[in-house]
Each structure stands twice: as structure tokens, then as C-alpha cells.
Prior knowledge:
single chain, TIM Barrel, 37% helix
Amino acid sequence: MxxxxxxxxxEALPAGVELVAVSKFHPVDRLMxxxxxxxxxxxxSRPQELAAKVPQMPSDVRWHFIGHLQTNKLKLxxxxxxxxxxxDSLHLLEAINAWGMANNxxxxxxxxxxxGAEETKQGFTAEEILTVVSRAGTAxxxxxxxxxxxxxxxxxxxxxxxxxxxxxxxRLFLELQAVNPQITxxxxxxxxxxxxxxxxxxxxxxxxxxxxxxREY
Length: 217
């Protein structure tokens, strides 16, 4: 089931778009099914769950973090991940940088864009992101590397709304690329809307349900 789903999605993805398997709330045996089928990038959203799964999975797994990250949980996440996709505030960005200075590590991050359609969503405004990216690489942020943007479309079945949301994120991404060549990654698209995302410069899609089925816990 998992292997077949992975194969189908990978065949449909254009070259240059990475598949991030959203493994949150799924047990390790399900993750191993995906691993044995060739998947190497997995994403978790809860620090304790990530820290528990890391030692149970092969060492060549590339972990991403995609959930809201509290600054008091950095030690459960930053030693293990190659990318924090969900940096949603300047406070968190500066905390990750401080952790990196103390632990001699540069952390790759994506900045999460808040579209404003849902007040519960975290994230930066477009104007805030432009300001933060202009500071990237300065002495104040030398232990983080801003690689791009992460975003979510409005939770709706109306694909026209989803398309407009991805268009907004794409425009900002291209604007950032024009001023900072370090900006190379755009993580948009999930189960249900990823085909729309790949039309709008997505370099990563975050897919869980379409691979693993309904969450198990």
C-alpha cells in the first residue's frame, strides 16, 4: 500500500520537486515501509515524536521539521534535522541562531508565510519576510541559512482559492530569489493540492495522507 502510493506520487512529480513524506502520527513500522520503498525525506511536527523516532530509523533518513516549534524544544529538534520548514517568527529565528552559535551548527530554515486566510495560522507577513531575508548572512544571523519559503493554502475544496494562494506565495518566492541567490526552496502543496503547487514553482511537496493513509495516533 505505502510502496504503491509512493511510486504513484513520484511518477507524477516533475523533475526537481522533492517528496517530503509527512510521517507525523504514524508508527515507525509504517515509516519503514516507505523507507524500504526508497523514501528518505520524512517530516515530523512534534519535537518529542521526532526525537523518539530518530534512533529507531536508519541513519541516512533526512529529517525535516514542519510544526510550530517552541524555543524550549530546540534541543529535541535541531540536532537531528536537515531543515526546519516552519520558522514562523523572528523570535524563533533568533533562538535557532543562538542555539547554533552555542552548538557550532548552521541550521537551514524556511520562513513560513502567513496568508491571513485563517487567523490560527502562524507565520510572517510578506513584508516581514523581505526584511528578514535582507538580514540573512549578517553577523546577527550567522548560524542560520534561510533557504526559502514554506506555505499552506487555505483549507478549502475550492481549487480556485488554493490556486490564488499559491500564486501569492510564488510571487514572493520569485521576488526573494531576485535579491538573494541563497533562496532556492519553495515548500508548498500537501495531500489534496500538491498538483496545483507544482504549477507554481514548488520545489518540495509535503504529503502524508496520500502515502500513509489516515493518521494512526
